[in-house]
Each structure stands twice: as structure tokens, then as C-alpha cells.
Amino acid sequence: MISTSTTVPATRRVLAAELPGLIGAQVTLQGWLHRRRGLKSVVFLVLRDRSGLAQAVFTGPGAMAAAARHPEETVLQVTGTVTGNPQAPGGAELTSPSVTALSGPAEPPPFDLYRPTVAASLPTVLDHAPVALRHPVLRAPHVISAASVAGFRAALDGLGFTEIHTPKIVASATESGAGVFAVDWFGDRAYLAQSPQFFKQAMVGVFERVYEVGPVFRAEPHDTARHLAQYTSLDAELGFVADHRDVMAVLRDVLAGMTDAVRRRAGDACALLGAEVPDVPERIPEIHFTRAQDLLAAHTGDDPRGEPDLAPAHERWLSEWALREHGSEFLFVTGYPMAKRPFYTHPDPASPAHSNSFDLLFRGLELVTGGQRLHRHEDYLAALAGRGEPPAPYTGYLATFRHGMPPHGGFAIGLERWTSRLIGAANIRTATLFPRDLHRLTP
Amino acid sequence: MISTSTTVPATRRVLAAELPGLIGAQVTLQGWLHRRRGLKSVVFLVLRDRSGLAQAVFTGPGAMAAAARHPEETVLQVTGTVTGNPQAPGGAELTSPSVTALSGPAEPPPFDLYRPTVAASLPTVLDHAPVALRHPVLRAPHVISAASVAGFRAALDGLGFTEIHTPKIVASATESGAGVFAVDWFGDRAYLAQSPQFFKQAMVGVFERVYEVGPVFRAEPHDTARHLAQYTSLDAELGFVADHRDVMAVLRDVLAGMTDAVRRRAGDACALLGAEVPDVPERIPEIHFTRAQDLLAAHTGDDPRGEPDLAPAHERWLSEWALREHGSEFLFVTGYPMAKRPFYTHPDPASPAHSNSFDLLFRGLELVTGGQRLHRHEDYLAALAGRGEPPAPYTGYLATFRHGMPPHGGFAIGLERWTSRLIGAANIRTATLFPRDLHRLTP
User: Where does a domain end: A85, A101, A117?
Assistant: First the structure.
């Protein structure tokens, strides 16, 4: 029988999660000292690496003293023999270990990282993000985010989309809504882009189907649990659609791709956070805005008919209704009144006061907004005139539509909002590595 | 025998590239009218879609008049019978077609998009980017870019890296080098990030191995063919390295992943541009800075010994040397003098005036810069003191290193620079959808 110890040279680093498959081998672990526990005749060092935790057991006065010297969070290299032990994490630990420090002795973090949760307020955690995020529970949302983005891209790559990178600095603050940040552009005034909307539409004329994953900026003067001044927008736009339903079908496939990737690549992170990954139905249920209002009038104390938008309480009720009636955690609400949508929104030809647009509700909140856009130059001029807006600031944007553009539409998913909802976070900052807001510009 | 015409419903859109496999079928194409040619008894409409070109042949006075009505770049839907014709693009064309416009009649673009190349200066092309990029030759670099980024990510995903998204707005302009753009941050002054360097290093403490694909901003006052004010940086950083050679090994695999993806996903674009995708050797040759200088002194008219950096002509000579001596279009130059590298660069322990850093030369130009970074808090303090810089502006960055950081390093690839080199572009703007520079803030 070949000893497994011959297959892993002592100098090659193995990861904590590999130990159970290497019983009997002499191996080297490298990682952070997550926890040190000294008993009378034994010192346990628990190392943390990107795969998880592993324990090394030091006995004898010399080894124990060498192990006990290192403060928690010091980066260590530990070489020893992998030994089965049902009590150890993963059922294996290192015995007869020797230890070397790869960093200087770590200063204690402002909170203990080895406890099950970090006992500190969110502002304190955010102030110390580079260290706080080492805690497995605070790290997990970002593993889920990374998996989600991978799923987003894989789904769209499979559908013939092309990835683009568009400018984040623009000449005019033309998209209405949230405020913009001004930039000193070689002595002139420019602005940070609030979305890649105009660029992605123009690129439908080039690639037909495009997506972008990138930062967007909102000078949001509200200090809430839901708003960030910079977030990551997952944008898609596609041409040759019949109407918004073709866009919704792509979004459905994207959500299926994202949830599949989360299950496959971030299962441990979800388990750690108790996050349940939703099933994406083959066909996500949809309800028209006016029918949604009728339902709310009939079944809740409110009568929202005549209102141009849904209140948060109404979105929650509709989400519960979709779960109850259709067994779906997702619900498309279509046909929002044109008055509440951007000027580039395509109206419903059969009912022009309503739009060929949608919101996707997920677990009680709006997660995605999208729809069909106008594609004829004269329709843009009429839409702007109808809102009393001069076309001049949009000259560059509108030029695209002079030269032949197909019916098209798209959507944008806020990555941090998606992850927050998925893990049930009380604050969107939990799903942001280094949040930027009214009060926070560091670290 | 089953007719293929039953397998494709007439209403389903097919792509131009699919026609040769659908001989005999009744199909619908949708795309831009690339070229219209009217002869005495026939009108040809060449449609362009994301897959390529396809031709429809209109005969008879009524059909010819209907076809001849549409100006080029109008978006059309054409339904007809797929008929083999060796003279047609791809060997098949649509006969007995009917045509409907999906857009309004297009205004003529400022240059003909159907000619083999666009007969306009680069500034004119850039002014009209949304239309100009529809030209297959101007579109192709961006297909190559998209493939390259996909390859970058796939390679790193396979090596256990985690994707991150870091702030593009920062509190202080701490990275030396190019200028920074100032942002009005709710009445305070902030800056656009010149690189994710500090963030990616901090995230090595959390994920060990991270990458980011995102915009970086350089307030570059030079108007050259090589500089952009915003570009896409492909950043990677990894912990638990022995030295910079572990970083170089990852970069080698990343380049192999990028070139594989370009071959696989952008072969047509490369062929159109005559771009030769380089082979990435199993081991990219490397040369130490001092040996490179010795070679240059021995074999060129120059004697650069004592200079702290390589001149562009020297980089070209070394690239040619690597191709001649090692058959490689890539060459690592290692050991650059510490004086020319950023303060966080790790010195060579055996020769502390030189660094554990590298440049990667590709076809005569520096493509990538990277290296090992300092990882001990006290080394950072000493490095800053040695440069006469106070540590105060770096407090947040330095805090990471108080709490245990492993030996680590990384690199950054400028996406537009990579694509430019690959296609042999004279100007980096050819590889940028909507360039931003000293003189250009639109479209």
C-alpha cells in the first residue's frame, strides 16, 4: 500500500479543507491564527485559510511555548502530520507540528474574530472593514456576490451577449432621479455616470445584446439602510425584442443562472448565513399594474387605484400573494404608468398611458427595473416634448436613433441589493466591501 | 425525407450565419440594411446582424420597389426562402423575400459603413462612435476585449480567486504617479481611484486571492496615442507567495487563459483584423534588470547601465531578443531598482536596491507591471520614512498590516493596452468604445 505521505511533499501548501483526505501525510498549512487555546498539557492553534479552519495540536513544553507565543491573526505556517480526530474540525488535525510566523505578531483586532459573530456595531465593523471582513460570517456575503456575478455573466454569455465597458465620467447630468457627483475634469465640470443606460442602448446598435458589470454613482443625500452612493450595477440590454416580455424572459434565465451559481459556488457561505436560495420558476408569474391595484383594493384596507406607483407595503403584499398563489418568490409587475417611468420607456401600444416596463419583486422588495425602450428618433423627440424637456442635452444620445435602431429593452440589477435580499441583511452595507455614503468615504 | 422548412417556423428569427444550414427553409432575418444594390432586374439587400452578413434577392417590379425604398442602416425584417448560391456570402441567400422596416428610415451615417474600411479620421470616428462601431472592422477589437476579459476571469476562477468590487471614490490622493480627478463629495473633496491597489491588498487578508475588473482614472494631461483618462484595469492579488515568481506564474496562466479565450470566442474578429494571437510559453523567459542592461550595453550603441529604468527603445530591443533567443513574444524583466517602484514594493532580500517586481514586455512594450508587496507593518513605516513621506495619509491602508498579512503580490493589466497590442492598433482609442481624454468627454 502506498502511503499518502509520499504524494504530498512537505513543502507544498495544502488548504484546511484538504486535511480529511490526507490522513497520515506530512503537510504544511498556511493561514491566520484564528484561535489559540492553551490547556495545561496541550496548546491548540486553529488556523484559518480561504477554505476554512484546521487545528494543530502542540504538546510538550517546547512546542507548547513556541505555539503560545503567537497572537491571534498572526500569519503562520504549520507543518505536521495529518491525524484523524472526530473532535477536530473536519475530522482531522495536525499533530507533532512545527510553527513559523509569516507575518509580524498581529495586534489584536478591535473585536474577536474567533467568536461566532462579531460583537460590534455596524459602523465599527465598517470602520475596520479590512480586518472585520476576515470573520467568516462577514466574509460570506461577498462570496455569494462573486458567485452571483459569475452566474449573471455565464447566463448572458450563453445567450450571445457581449460584455462592454462604458465611461463612468459623462458631460451632462441627463438621467433624472437621484443626484449626481460633479468631477473637476481638467478644469471643466463633468459628472459621474448614474447608469450605463445611454451607452448600453447605443451598443445594441453594434452588438445587439450587451451587458456590463460596473460601478454607478448616486449622490444620494439620504442616510438609509438601502442607499449607497456607489453600487455595482448588473446591466443588460438586447435588441430585436417583440416587447418587454422578451426582456423578462432573458431576466428569468439570468436569475436562474445566478441562483445556480450561488448554489454551486457559494453553498457553504449560504449555509453559514442560513440563506435560502430561491427557486426561479420556469415562468415567473406576472401581474399588470392595474390588476395589482385592483387586488390590493379588494384584499387590503387600502385603495391605491389612481396612484401612479406601488407603496412598499403594497409590494410586500403582492410578494406574499405571488408566493401563496403561484408558489414563487419572484413576481413581475408590468404596465407601470408612463408618468412614473423615464422618458425613454416604450408605452404599451394598446394602452399608451401604461408602459411596456416591469419591476421584479423579490421577497417583498423591488429588485430589478426594466422594460422596452423607444427606438424611433421621432418617438424620442415626442417623448421629451411631452415632458417639456428640450432635446439639446440629449443630442449625442438621440443621434444613435437617427441611424436605425431595432426595438430593444433591458434591465439593471443592483448587486448589493440582490445579495442583501438573498441573505436577509438588515442593511445593504453588509453586502458591500467598502460602502460609500453620505457619511462614509473611508476605509 | 423531412423538409428542413418544417423545423424553423417562419416567425422565429434566424441569424445570418445560420443560413447555410437552412437551405430550403422559409426563415426570417432581422438586422441592419448594410448595403443596397439595385440592378436593372434585381435588387440585393445585404443585412447585417450580430453573426455577420446575409443577402436577400428581390425580383419583379413590386418587390424591387419595396426593397429599394429603405436607406442603408434602416433596421429590417426579411422573410424568404433560403436558397443555395455560391456567389452569396456564406453560400446561401434569401429568395422570394418580403421586407418590413423595424425602425424608421435611417439617416445616412457620416461615412459609409458598407465599405471595407471607414474612410474617416480617428476623431471623426470617435465623435460618431455609436454608429461607427457598427462597422465590422471597428467593432472587432471590442469582441476581442470581451473575450480577453472572459479568459482573465476564467483563469483566475480556476485558481481559487474571488472577484471583488472596490470603491472608485477615495478620500485621499495617495498613490503617486499620474494625476487624480477631484470629486465634489456632498460638499467635501474626494478623488477618483487611480487603481484598486490598496483595496485588493487588504482583501488578500480576507480571500487570499482576489481579482477585480473595473475602471481606473488618471488625470493624464498628455494627449498621446497611449494614454486614456479612464481605462479598464484587470487587477489580481494573491497571498502566500514565496516571492514575485509565484505572481509571475499566475500571470502566465492568466495570459494563457486570455489567449485561449480570444482564439475560441473571437477568432473571426482576429481574422478580420489580421491579428495574430501569441503563443504563451509554458514558462515565459525572464531576465534580470541588471543583466538586461548588460546585454543592451554589449549589443546596442547605448550603455544604459546606472539608469534606473528602461527606455522604450530598450524595451523594443529586449522584446526582439526574447523572440530571437527564446521564441517568445513575452519577456519578464525582473529586479527593477527600488527607486523607480512604488513604496509598497518588496525589495529583493539578496540585493535590497533591487525589487521583487517585474514588468512583462509584449511585442516591444510594457504590458503588465507587478511584483511582491511588503507585508509587515514595520516595513511599510520604514519604506515611507526612507522616502521622506509621513505615514498619516496611509493610516487606513497601514492598519491592515498591523493585524497579520501574508507575503503577497499581484499585477494589473490594462485591458485597452492589451487589445491594442494584440491587434497592432496605432492608437489605444481603437480599443476603447467611448474614450475619455484631455479633449474628449463625449459621446
Answer: A101
